Amino acid sequence: MLKFNLLIFGDTGWGDELLISCIMTIFVSLSAMGLGVIIAIFTAWAKVSGNIILKIIANFYTTVIRGVPELLVIYLIFFGSSASIMYISKIFGYHGYIELNAFTMGTISIGIISAAYSTEVFRGAYNIIDKGQIEAAQALGLSKINTFIKILGPQILKHALPGLGNVWQITLKDTALISVTGLVEIMRQSRIAANVTHSPLTFYLTAAALYLILTTFSSKAFNKLEDYSNNNKVKA
Fold first, then answer.
1. Domain 15-230, CATH number (from 3.30.470.20, 2.60.40.10, 1.10.3720.10, 3.20.10.10)
2. Distance of CA 119 to the CA centre of its chain
3. How much is the pLDDT for 114?
């Protein structure tokens, strides 16, 4: 039975807590997506650079991350990083327990997962571009950095936008998995409220509605960006 009175704001309801958890979900999603894009740029570059060693490392990374369940990746990063830091600290004489901030670990975990998918988006966008443009830039004496900034970068971003929109939706929903790290986002707050009030249906349906609202608005935002990009020619 649904108990909508539990969703009101104030001391008698959980509306405040759910709003805060929703904001936390947005923050960690933005942070993870940003980190993922940064990692993906370098990983995609490694795949198309022609360097065999870099290409092998990049392919290994994307294959493993995309092939292993995302929850398992989060567990491995969460517990593995703490164990590694504690091992290093013992070398310097500190034998206490060290646990990283839940927000930081959530951002890193989801960011690494997001990067694996964004890498393929950027690589695919790069492969679409006519390589004759690179040759023309070289003939004009442009450096590799200027060629990327003025010619390749804007076109890659334009072609990558639809794919990045999909990666963002995945990243946003994957934040539900990092509730295992202790970060109070939508899913964890819903679980807490459901356990306290013994009304799981009310709060899990509310969580579903919040995710649906976030993904819907995100989809519309990316559609606007795509329309803007398509209506503006890339300036070399």
1. 1.10.3720.10
2. 12
3. 95
Nearest to 176 by CA among 196, 195, 191: 191
H-helix segments, 52-199: 52-67, 70-91, 102-128, 132-139, 144-147, 153-174, 186-197
- Please determine, for residue 233, whether its predicted confidence score (pLDDT) is greater than 60: no
Mean pLDDT confidence for 29-37: 95
Q: How far apart are CA 204 and CA 26, in angstroms?
A: 18
Q: pLDDT-derived band of residue 170, with 50, 70 and 90 as boundaries?
A: very high
CA distance 28 to 208: 18
Report DSSP state, residue 149.
I
80's tokens: 């593995």
Task: Using the predicted structure, report yes or no on whether residue 126 has a pLDDT greater than 80.
Answer: yes
Answer whether 123's CB lies under 8 Å from 44's CB.
yes
